[in-house]
């Protein structure tokens, strides 16, 4: 479901849940919502996820601002014929996560006294959690945390020039000394604990981040239905992409 609302003067649409490659969806299906949101006029994408931490400075419940990612997913969302209407064949990935939004989020975190880290997220297929050797590999490869989502959506967002901010909640530590066991239940519980701070941070980021009125050319691909929707949304549209358990 897409949930429409406002935060301050900003219009927000949130995806209630997301699709994962491990669930059997193709990468095109996983990333389709991002394309739809872009054509609804969304300017900024905020992605969140739960991940396993391999950086020893993290602990369960840490909020990590994603500064970069490593794509270790088995299929690329842009594989196949490129549709130039969406974006170029070869996409510049030198700034997948907006430096400006990262700086603003850090500033807000400091003001609100919320502890945040930054780090590199590595995306694996899942659905298995990593073996201890795989966690070690993730660390050696230069990542700080590992998960099973986000990377495909961010690639497609960059393809369409959607400015993106990403945040990860560390729900388990994949470190050989401290790892006990990890289950989805623990992931949900740890994510829930981080929810109040994450909610404050993201809300404030949405309020403070710059937005622009929709440009006329953002309308040209909209269907009649979308056109009406567009008019309801008027000026600012932002996209808040939080898994259901954060709401
Ligand atoms: O959708 P995300 O990446 O936040 O969810 C993580 C990865 C798996 O879907 C699930 C494992 O518990 O949490
Ligand atoms: O340790 C993890 N590995 C992969 N995905 C995850 N999602 C939450 N925790 C993890």
From TrEMBL:
GO terms (BP aspect): purine ribonucleoside salvage
Enzyme category, top tier: transferase
Keywords: Glycosyltransferase, Purine salvage, Transferase
Pathway(s) where this gene product acts: Purine metabolism; purine nucleoside salvage
Molecular function (Gene Ontology), one example: purine-nucleoside phosphorylase activity
EC numbers: 2.4.2.1
This protein's record includes keyword Transferase: yes
PANTHER family, per the entry: METHYLTHIOADENOSINE/PURINE NUCLEOSIDE PHOSPHORYLASE (PTHR11904), PURINE NUCLEOSIDE PHOSPHORYLASE-RELATED (PTHR11904:SF9)
Family of the protein in this entry: Belongs to the PNP/MTAP phosphorylase family.
Protein's recorded name: purine-nucleoside phosphorylase
């Amino acid at each position: 479901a897409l949930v429409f609302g406002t935060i301050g003067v900003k219009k927000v649409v949130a995806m209630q849940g997301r699709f994962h490659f491990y669930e059997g969806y193709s990468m095109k299906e996983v990333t389709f919502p991002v394309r739809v949101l872009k054509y609804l006029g969304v300017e900024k994408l905020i992605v969140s996820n739960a991940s396993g931490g391999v950086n020893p400075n993290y602990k369960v419940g840490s909020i990590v601002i994603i500064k970069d990612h490593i794509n270790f997913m088995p299929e690329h969302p842009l594989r196949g014929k490129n549709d130039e209407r969406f974006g170029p064949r070869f996409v510049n990935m030198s700034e997948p996560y907006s430096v400006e939004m990262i700086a603003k989020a850090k500033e807000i975190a400091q003001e609100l006294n919320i502890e945040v880290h930054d780090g590199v997220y590595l995306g694996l297929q899942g659905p298995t959690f990593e073996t201890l050797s795989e966690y070690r590999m993730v660390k050696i490869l230069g990542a700080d945390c590992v998960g099973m989502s986000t990377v495909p959506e961010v690639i497609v967002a960059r393809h369409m020039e959607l400015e993106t901010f990403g945040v990860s909640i560390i729900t388990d530590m994949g470190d050989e000394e401290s790892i006990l066991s990890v289950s989805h239940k623990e992931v949900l519980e740890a994510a829930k604990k981080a929810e109040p701070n994450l909610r404050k941070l993201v809300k404030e980021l949405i309020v403070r981040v710059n937005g622009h009125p929709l440009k006329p050319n953002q309308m040209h691909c909209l269907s009649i239905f979308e056109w009406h929707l567009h008019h309801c949304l008027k000026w600012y549209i932002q996209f808040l992409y939080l898994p259901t358990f954060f709401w």
